[in-house]
Amino acid sequence: MSPRDAVLVPAAELLASPAEAVLLDVRWALGDDRGRERYLAGHLPGAVFVDLDTELADPPSEATGRHPLPSLQRLESAARRWGISDGARVVAYDDSGGLAAARAWWLLRWAGLTDVRLLDGGLATWRAAGGPLETGDVVPPAGDVTLTGGHLPTLTADEAAAVPGRGGVLLDARAAERYRGEVEPVDPRAGHVPGARSAPTAANLAADGTFAPVAVLSERFAALGVVPGATVGVYCGSGVTAAHEVAALAVAGVEAALWPGSWSQWSADPDRPLAVGADDGTGHGTGGAGPEVSAGS
To answer: pLDDT per residue over 247-273, tens digit each?
Structure first.
């Protein structure tokens, strides 16, 4: 199986055998609480709604960030409610090219499930392929999956900060304007971790919302300094869209570690330095660094 096939499932393939997979609908966006409403209005037949804020994360805190990893007990309980049993085939999707669904993909892989994939292109490609939708809630029979942690690499804040200085690459998956410190819509301070490279998650996708071809992704990450065997870490605002970047790197054949606390954790600590400005090729930015940068809204 190719790296791409291990991460993604095309709509046509899923249409051929949808009943064999546990389908997870992970519609979510920052500042938008209408995911469940949209799910009820139309979803893949048999799909279960997954609440990212309450089922794919523990409660937020300054110490751990806006979407800390859920405890294994919380995640296992949720996965059983979704109907997942040991050895299950799982497919997660959303309506945003996988930007939210990748969080479920990453967490379940981290927790020990091996057959978890993203519907490439999400709901849009399912519709384009002629896939049917159903309305209303789905409550499947409870599963009995047993989850363990640590099957995918993670970083602490200190470990992430040390990656560039040790010859690795730390990728910032947020929008470029947030990386540069021009805007900060939700976290305490604007800017980026010194040494991080700007790698907006949206660039992982083609125009139709599917993941870009392997050659395109490989070229993109190589231009950011990601080479075979390199240590790669990824962060975003709160560890959600960073999972999408980890998935894109996996499609390109690169293993990367996720920093769950991400910028929401880093920026909440006024003693941690930050950089602002455009990526100058070293990741340090061109506007200087320091904790004196004013807070965002």
So the answer is: 999 999 999 999 999 999 999 999 999
Mean pLDDT for 35-48 is 96
Q: In DSSP terms, which residues pair with 233 in a beta bridge? A: 170, 257
Per-residue model confidence as pLDDT tens digits over 211-252: 999 999 999 999 999 987 889 999 999 999 999 999 999 999
Cβ atoms 126, 43 nearer than 8 A: no
CB contact at 8 A, 26 and 240: no
How many whole angstroms separate alpha carbon 193 and alpha carbon 179?
9
- Nearest in space to 198 (alpha carbons), one of 245, 256, 258, 143: 245
Same-domain pairing of 85 and 190: no
Query: For position 87, which CATH number holds?
Result: 3.40.250.10
Q: What are phi and psi of 259, to 5 degrees?
A: -100, 100
Report DSSP state, residue 164. G
The angle subtended at Cα 235 by Cα 233 and Cα 236, nearest 5°, is 160
State the pLDDT at residue 17: 85
Predicted model pTM: 0.93
| pLDDT score, position 20 | 87
Rounded Cα distance, 288 and 277, in Å: 7
Q: Which of 122, 104, 112, 52 is nearest to 246 (CA)?
A: 104
Active site residues: 236
The pLDDT of residue 284: 65
Domain ranges, residue 169? 157-266
Q: Averaged over 54-63, what is the pLDDT?
A: 95
Edge-first strand listing for the sheet containing 8-9: 8-9, 116-119, 90-93, 22-25, 48-49
> Is residue 146 domain-resident?
no
Name residue 65's beta-bridge partners: 61
